[in-house]
Amino acid sequence: MTPDPFELGERAARENIPAEANPYRDGSEEHALWAAGHERVASATEASESEGS
Predict the structure, then answer these.
(1) Is 20 inside any structural domain?
(2) What is the count of structural domains for the chain?
(3) Nearest to 11 by CA among 32, 43, 42
(4) Residue 20, pLDDT score
(5) Is 53 part of a structural domain of the chain?
(6) Is 37 a member of any domain?
(7) Beta-carbon contacts of residue 50 (< 8 Å; ≥ 6 apart)
(8) pLDDT at residue 1 is higher than 60
(9) pLDDT digits (tens, 9 = 90+) for 18-50
(10) Cβ contacts of residue 29 below 8 Å, gap of 6+?
(11) Residue 21 phi/psi, 5° resolution?
(12) 13 belongs to a structural domain
């Protein structure tokens, strides 16, 4: 089974891999899904960090 780009993006964000490391071709559906997954986790992480300040 092919890994889900959205889930891979989420995992990358949890592992502190920068969004620029998106492995998919810019403009592809996979690139967009990976970026969306990364942004979802990154946004949640930033929000929780700012609540603690």
Answers:
(1) yes
(2) 1
(3) 42
(4) 97
(5) no
(6) yes
(7) none
(8) yes
(9) 999 999 999 999 999 999 999 999 998 877 877
(10) 5
(11) -85, 10
(12) yes
